[in-house]
């Protein structure tokens, strides 16, 4: 799809990668960018139209899809990470919270906006996933990884369903991105702007997936290695 002239809705647009998406879309010539956040007053990027959205609240998602009838590009960016071992007693509740935000949220948004995208000529959906859709940081990311693996699988299924109405779905996988979520994490971090530019290029090129950095590309290549990356 063409980014220039598009009307985008970015979830979690108040900070981190979502704010970078909002800036990058405007710089690339988007006609309008709706920046969704739980607190719309926190969306301060000039030129971005703030809207209220908690992705775990179905009534808010449905109301927004009725209100924003001009959207052609949905960026499912909002996410949470709660790290800790799966054998800890509170892991089940942490898993539910991360599933609601990271997997059910994007599904709910895609369901609600699919008719809007269809009415506007097809457009596209971007799902921000992770290298942790494919592997787990031992004792830490079990629940987060499960939520991102679920979001990946849901996106793969939705891509096929959306094809019938001419809607592209791009899955974006990255290792550490330099945002609040990865604060304190060791090792290299990709700049959010670099994730955004690769995603916009993938949209323009009609690609299905972005492998944003060397670690992600290495893990992806290692899925069929012996032993597979997720067993190493
Ligand atoms: N940072 C990384 O290393 C990394 C790597 C791979 C993938 N990702 C993914 O990239 C995406 C963006 O994360 P980030 O790095 O920018 O993290 P971040 O700086 O922590 O930002 C997370 C964003 O999601 C929003 N959010 C969380 N729960 C929400 C909800 N229920 N409804 C609406 N918005 C909600 C937050 O809003 P509030 O300000 O209201 O909390 C915030 O805007 C996420 O999907 C994350 O999983 C991040």
From TrEMBL:
Keyword tRNA-binding among record annotations: no
Keywords: Oxidoreductase
GO molecular function: oxidoreductase activity
Signal peptide start and end residues: none
Alphabetical list of NCBIfam families matching this protein: PRK08264.1-3, PRK08264.1-5
Family from the record: Belongs to the short-chain dehydrogenases/reductases (SDR) family.
Protein's name according to its UniProt entry: Short-subunit dehydrogenase
Lineage: Bacteria, Pseudomonadati, Pseudomonadota, Alphaproteobacteria, Hyphomicrobiales
């Amino acid at each position: 799809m063409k980014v220039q002239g598009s009307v985008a809705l970015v979830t979690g647009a108040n900070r981190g990668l979502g704010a970078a998406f909002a800036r990058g879309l405007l710089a690339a010539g988007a006609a309008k960018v709706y920046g969704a956040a739980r607190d719309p007053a926190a969306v301060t990027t000039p030129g971005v139209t703030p809207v209220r959205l908690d992705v775990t609240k179905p009534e808010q998602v449905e109301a927004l899809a009725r209100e924003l009838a001009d959207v052609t590009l949905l960026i499912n960016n909002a996410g949470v990470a709660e790290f800790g071992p799966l054998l800890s007693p509170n892991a089940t509740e942490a898993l539910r919270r991360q599933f609601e935000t990271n997997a059910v949220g994007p599904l709910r948004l895609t369901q609600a906006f699919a008719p809007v995208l269809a009415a506007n000529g097809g457009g596209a959906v971007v799902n921000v996933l992770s290298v942790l859709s494919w592997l787990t940081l031992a004792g830490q990311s079990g629940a987060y990884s499960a939520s991102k693996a679920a979001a990946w699988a849901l996106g793969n299924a939705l891509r096929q369903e959306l094809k019938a109405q001419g809607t592209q779905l791009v899955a974006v996988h990255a290792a550490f991105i330099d945002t609040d979520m990865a604060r304190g994490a060791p090792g290299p971090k990709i700049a959010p702007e670099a994730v955004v530019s690769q995603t916009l290029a993938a949209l323009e090129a009609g690609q299905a997936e972005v492998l944003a950095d060397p670690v992600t590309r290495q893990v992806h290549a290692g899925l069929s290695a012996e032993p597979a990356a997720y067993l190493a």
